[in-house]
Specification:
With about 500 residues, this protein is of the alpha/beta class. Helices cover about 45% and strands about 10% of the residues. Helix 18 links the parallel strand 10 and strand 11.
């Protein structure tokens, strides 16, 4: 065993690369790079923060820089993980599948069981039929799922692989039985985003499971959260519905799949909506969607069921949660108990306590369309002023509805809304029209550091902070958690920048 005390010190890259050997290596590399001088780099960097560069930046059409979205199959994998005993199978290359697993694992800090059909160059030429048949047979034999949910990547879509036909071939050849459910969705990565992929896969699963199951009403209210990166949200929704006394089912419940306890035993398929319960969802009294733009295709099939269909904004903040609770109570025919009214009152009281530190703060926000819509409602309630509102995967319909939401508040009238723009567009916006806060994912931390403003991490993905996904941002309780994080972020900044005479004990 080494007696050198440094041998026991594990250095991260913050300190490791400050060592003399790394500094020397960095200097030696410069002679081969033909790089510009530090002064020239600084000059160009400053120019890229100007209005002149902003106009050039917004004029580009055929290049995307730091798009704030992931691709369809990633969302399809998350949708599959919301159903009990379900194994996601990605028909494509191993590298693509590793990306989806890694992306979700880094956000949720959990293992993500997903298998691949391992397509390679020959599959790209001759088709992936044999790959998918072998993958289905191996997956069912080795991992013994109750259901396999198949999605596709670019490679399979470019060559036109027909999933319905391929899965039928797998049954004919005896690779899988006739009884195991194998829903599927075509999820090409080169169009849409992770939100669309989730929607496509959820539609595929519900279409498959509910076929031929129409019967008498079961008195249940279906909840469709859509692509939700917060397991705490799903648990909070179930708690609220239980307090309301509403018989309910969450269609796509990944709260246990991606937040399972450490008991010493590994369970490959923890939690999830039971398949029989999902099959009976066609007989619900009502289905409530918590995403307008992220559940369009699933709403198409649910709209053909007998029960009422309701769509609300994500229940973030007081107003959005009021609408959610009111609509649930209406469709279920129940009253709102005092316990929930008290939760609402506590959030109102907390807003009163903290509003002085949040009122009038200028905000840039970016993320998935429905998340941005929900968060905007809360920010406006706080008296904060959105300036830049951006969604890479947002369309003009979303933009127009968002503009209406902003125009309805005196705090939203300075805002500009940017559908289809990316993180590099947002950089130009923030440098030319500065803000006090950026709200969004980990991918915005470089911009926040460059602009010297705090980043409030929210949405997907969050790689560089731990456990935020475990706590809800939905409901009155979630609103209180959001408020707590938000106001304390500003108080930390206030203390960090305070002169000695204003370094107060009480805030």
């Amino acid at each position: 065993m080494s007696t050198n005390p440094d041998a026991l010190v594990v250095r991260d890259h913050n300190t490791l690369f400050k060592g003399p050997e790394y500094q020397e290596q960095r200097e030696r590399k410069k002679q081969f790079e033909a790089g510009s001088s530090p002064a020239e780099v600084a000059r160009v960097a400053e120019w890229t923060r100007s209005w002149e560069y902003r106009e050039k930046n917004f004029a580009r059409k055929d290049l995307s820089v730091n798009p704030l979205k992931a691709c369809q199959p990633l969302g399809a994998v998350l949708a599959a993980l919301g159903f009990a005993g379900t194994l996601p199978l990605v028909h494509g290359s191993q590298g693509c599948t590793s990306y989806f697993r890694g992306h979700l694992s880094r956000h949720f800090k959990e293992p993500v069981p997903t298998v691949s059909s391992s397509m390679t160059e020959d599959s790209a030429v001759f088709g992936g039929l044999n790959n998918l048949i072998e993958a289905l047979g191996t997956a069912v034999h080795v991992y013994k799922p109750d259901m396999v949910a198949v999605s596709t990547t670019c490679m399979a879509e470019v060559i036109g692989d027909d999933l319905q036909n391929f899965i039928a071939n797998a049954r004919t050849k005896g690779a899988i039985s006739e009884t195991i459910p194998v829903p599927y969705a075509h999820t090409p990565s080169f169009v849409g985003s992770h939100v669309l992929g989730y929607d496509n896969m959820l539609r595929g699963i519900l279409s498959y499971l509910t076929e031929g199951k129409k019967g008498a009403s079961n008195g249940t209210v279906n909840i469709v959260p859509g692509f939700d990166p917060y397991v705490g949200n799903i648990r909070e929704l179930k708690r609220l519905l239980t307090v309301l006394g509403v018989k309910h089912v969450v269609l796509g419940d990944h709260s246990d799949s991606l937040d399972s306890p450490a008991t010493g035993e590994y369970h490959m398929y923890p939690g999830g909506t039971p398949l029989a319960v999902a099959a009976d969802s066609i007989n619900a009294t009502a289905t409530v969607f918590l995403q307008s733009f992220g559940s369009k295709r699933t709403r198409e099939i649910v709209g053909g069921w007998a029960g009422e269909t309701v769509t609300v904004n994500p229940p973030i903040g007081i107003g959005n949660t009021d609408v959610f609770v009111t609509e649930i109570a209406r469709v279920a025919g129940v009253g709102v108990p005092d316990e929930i009214t008290a939760e609402r009152g506590r959030l109102l009281d907390a807003l009163t306590d903290s509003h002085a530190y949040l009122h009038g703060k200028r905000v840039a926000i970016a993320g998935d369309p429905d998340f941005v819509t929900g968060m905007l409602g809360f920010l406006l309630e706080l008296g904060m002023e959105p300036i830049h509102v951006l969604a890479t995967n947002g369309d003009e319909t979303w933009a127009n509805q968002t503009r209406e939401l902003l125009a309805a508040s005196p705090f939203g009238r300075q805002a500009t809304v940017w559908p289809g723009k990316d993180g590099w567009h947002l950089r130009s916006l923030v440098h030319t029209e500065p803000v006090d806060l950026i709200v969004g994912s980990t991918h915005l931390k470089h911009l926040a550091r460059e602009a010297n403003v705090p980043l409030f991490r929210a949405g997907f993905p969050i790689f560089d902070r731990h456990h935020l996904h475990r706590f809800p941002i939905y409901g009155y309780t979630g609103g209180l958690a959001l408020l707590t994080q938000l106001v304390n972020l500003f108080l930390d900044e206030l203390d960090r920048n305070a002169p000695d005479h204003s370094f107060d004990i009480v805030r």
